[in-house]
Amino acid sequence: STEETLVLVKPDGVARGLTGAILARIEAKGYALVDIRLVEPDRERLERHYEEHAGKPFYEPLVEFMMSGPSVAIRLAGNRVIEGFRSLAGTTDPTSAAPGTIRGDFGRDWGLKVQQNLVHGSDSTESATRELGIWFN
Ligand code: CMP
């Protein structure tokens, strides 16, 4: 059924000039852009966004990475868009993400403590509602 999700083009995607290529895939798939903005999140916003990862070894590097430059936040709509965008994105680790996916085609391991994997997509309707409230308020 019709639903919305939060997509982020993370700082690595913006810095590498991949925002347009990523948006092109989202649009070609047929999902609707409802809202889009460039955001430079502070630590407080990121701690809310990533609260489920607090205490994990990659948490602090993740927050630092996400503060390293702007992200593009996208409110995306369509039937089953949460599942559909995660399929477009590919699996978390860009080294093994399937070719044909955003992470598989554009991502790699840069030898850092955090997986720089270009995009984020909400993983459930509950996460989408929560995360959209954090990035679009
Ligand atoms: P995302 O799905 O947006 O949310 C959690 C992020 O943490 C994930 O993308 C990666 O950027 C990062 N991440 C997840 N697992 C690891 C890991 N094992 N090591 C380093 N970074 C990770």
Automatic annotation (TrEMBL):
<feature type="binding site">
    <location>
        <position position="58"/>
    </location>
    <ligand>
        <name>ATP</name>
    </ligand>
</feature>
<feature type="active site" description="Pros-phosphohistidine intermediate">
    <location>
        <position position="120"/>
    </location>
</feature>
<dbReference type="GO" id="GO:0006241">
    <property type="term" value="P:CTP biosynthetic process"/>
</dbReference>
<dbReference type="GO" id="GO:0005524">
    <property type="term" value="F:ATP binding"/>
</dbReference>
<keyword id="KW-0418">Kinase</keyword>
<keyword id="KW-0460">Magnesium</keyword>
<keyword id="KW-0546">Nucleotide metabolism</keyword>
<dbReference type="InterPro" id="IPR034907">
    <property type="entry name" value="NDK-like_dom"/>
</dbReference>
<keyword id="KW-0067">ATP-binding</keyword>
<feature type="binding site">
    <location>
        <position position="10"/>
    </location>
    <ligand>
        <name>ATP</name>
    </ligand>
</feature>
<feature type="binding site">
    <location>
        <position position="92"/>
    </location>
    <ligand>
        <name>ATP</name>
    </ligand>
</feature>
<keyword id="KW-0479">Metal-binding</keyword>
<feature type="binding site">
    <location>
        <position position="117"/>
    </location>
    <ligand>
        <name>ATP</name>
    </ligand>
</feature>
<feature type="domain" description="Nucleoside diphosphate kinase-like">
    <location>
        <begin position="2"/>
        <end position="137"/>
    </location>
</feature>
<protein>
    <recommendedName>
        <fullName>Nucleoside diphosphate kinase</fullName>
        <ecNumber>2.7.4.6</ecNumber>
    </recommendedName>
</protein>
<dbReference type="InterPro" id="IPR036850">
    <property type="entry name" value="NDK-like_dom_sf"/>
</dbReference>
<dbReference type="GO" id="GO:0006183">
    <property type="term" value="P:GTP biosynthetic process"/>
</dbReference>
<dbReference type="GO" id="GO:0006228">
    <property type="term" value="P:UTP biosynthetic process"/>
</dbReference>
<comment type="similarity">
    <text>Belongs to the NDK family.</text>
</comment>
<dbReference type="InterPro" id="IPR001564">
    <property type="entry name" value="Nucleoside_diP_kinase"/>
</dbReference>
<feature type="binding site">
    <location>
        <position position="103"/>
    </location>
    <ligand>
        <name>ATP</name>
    </ligand>
</feature>
<dbReference type="Pfam" id="PF00334">
    <property type="entry name" value="NDK"/>
</dbReference>
<dbReference type="GO" id="GO:0046872">
    <property type="term" value="F:metal ion binding"/>
</dbReference>
<keyword id="KW-0547">Nucleotide-binding</keyword>
<dbReference type="GO" id="GO:0004550">
    <property type="term" value="F:nucleoside diphosphate kinase activity"/>
</dbReference>
<keyword id="KW-0808">Transferase</keyword>
<feature type="binding site">
    <location>
        <position position="86"/>
    </location>
    <ligand>
        <name>ATP</name>
    </ligand>
</feature>
